[in-house]
Amino acid sequence: MIGWTIYICFLGVLLLTIIPRENHRAIRIFALLTAIASLVIGVVGTLHYSPNPSGAATVAKLPWVQSLGIEYYLAVDGISLVMVLLTGIAAVVGILFSWNIEDRVKEFFCFYLTLIGAVYGVFLSFDLFLFFVFYELAIVPKYFLIAIWGSTNREYGAMKLALYSFIGSAMILVVLLAAYVVSGAKTFNLVELSKFQFPVAFQMWALPLMLAGFGILAGLWPFHTWAPTGHVAAPTAASMLLAGVVMKLGAYGALRVAMTLFPRGLDDWVSRFHGLESWREVFALLALIGIVYGAMVAFVQRDFKFVIGYSSVSHMGFVLLGLMTLTEIGLTGAVLQMFSHGIIAGLLFAVVGRMVYDRTHTRDLSELERMRLHKVIPFAAFTFVIAGLASMGLPGFSGFVAELQVLIGAWSAFPTFAVIAGMGILVGVAYTIRTMQRAFFSGAPIVTSSTTVSAPPQRLHADAPIAAISLPERLGAALLMALTLVVGLQPRLLLDLITPALGSPLFANLFKRIGP
């Protein structure tokens, strides 16, 4: 049943093509109903799912290219379900925040649903060739969504994202083909390949190459530069999907494929790299740099959207650091952080892109702080405060539980890294409060000879009053705010799915202690 999340999205694209181009309302409603249908299937599938001690539950398994051992193999475990739920939520909310699209509406939602269907396919594919097909398919609509409907430097942002993505994909494909040949199993079945003991010498180059390939899409430093540029150039819904879902494809692939197939490549000794003794420590260091660097760069940004873009790089660093701990609590925290960041980043980009930029036509914090937006669009200010508190990791929100688990896992694996990562959180608190104050709660004073008064709100276009927040925007924001609170207060809702999946035979080799 859960496989219909994919089929409904692609079927929706086909049916959208027969709706008259000028009927924008029908196109929007149909796209929304398609996304809701996929989300409902994901929720129902989750409610009926029982953890399988022997591994993932098969959804569909049919021969595809028999001569090469390629199958149409879909399966699901708790980790896949968490990512499917995140995708469904992001899809529905993204459409609500795209209700104002007027240019080439049909094409926009066709590309949008194609991207969502491809993302569902990545999270459900257990044949690595099929996984790669869906992974590549997601790149094409990303490019067009930014290049056609984007804003600042949209062609540059779209091309940079596409080039980085294809370079990462090429690195992944090289390792997949090499693993296919070296295993001699004549199959791309992930479960079967995970049972094969690849030679250590092979794992020592395959693991870092594949981790770097997936890390590009996950915003791993120093391959992160496409992310802030792409986020800023993208329309609101595309920004929400990029930060909320697409970046998770890289982190998910790192865990599901690279670390599952080549676990010995993580802990076996390698040539010393500035005192680091394993690839695990190298990538943990890169993740740590991403946490601190992203936070510090976000702190000095003047562009509102760049603040959130670099914030995403910083928070994705916690995902990658959690993966490198190789502890159950660290890995669980990493997966939970994927979900949490997807919700919170989507909410932040919704505020910045749709609620603020589309109304004020500026993202410059020095201009926004003269507008006193907390009085002009109070719902946007309220939403950003909630999203900011969640992003800072305030107890009661999903980010607190996720980052706490990552830090506990990091403390047992890399105590020094854990301390520095904690300092990165403090910088995150600083830039969030600074941005919150400048964007919504400042008012530049006017100094006269006798008194000081507050300046009246200023707008870029005084003849065009700022529109009130629409009902679709309020519904989308309310859904995301509610989710980060629910997961923060009841994390067991997701942890009960994630923890059994990590205990399955698929990850058994990952938790084995590897000797020198």
Topology record:
Blueprint: H1 4-16, H2 24-47, E1 57-65, E2 70-76, H3 78-96, H4 105-124, H5 128-137, H6 139-149, H7 154-183, H8 190-194, H9 200-218, H10 226-233, H11 236-261, H12 264-267, H13 279-299, H14 304-325, H15 328-360, H16 365-368, H17 373-376, H18 378-392, H19 398-413, H20 415-440, E3 445-447, E4 452-454, H21 471-489, H22 492-502, H23 508-511
Antiparallel strand pairs: 1-2, 3-4
Helix pairs in contact: 1-2, 1-4, 2-3, 2-4, 3-4, 3-11, 3-15, 3-21, 3-22, 4-5, 4-6, 4-11, 5-7, 6-7, 7-9, 7-10, 9-11, 10-11, 10-14, 11-14, 11-15, 13-14, 13-20, 14-15, 14-19, 14-20, 15-18, 15-19, 15-21, 15-22, 18-20, 18-21, 19-20, 19-21
| Element order: H for helix, E for strand | HHEEHHHHHHHHHHHHHHHHHHEEHHH
Distance between the termini: 45 Å
**Uncertain runs with pLDDT below 50, 5 residues or more?**
271-276, 444-463
Number of strands: 4
Radius of gyration from CA coordinates: 23 Å
| Shape by Cα distribution | globular
Strand neighbour order, sheet with most strands: 1-2
Structural class: mainly alpha
Biggest sheet statistics: 2 strands, antiparallel
Amount of helix: over 70%
Strand content: under 5%
Arithmetic mean of pLDDT: 83
Counted by DSSP, the helix tally is 23
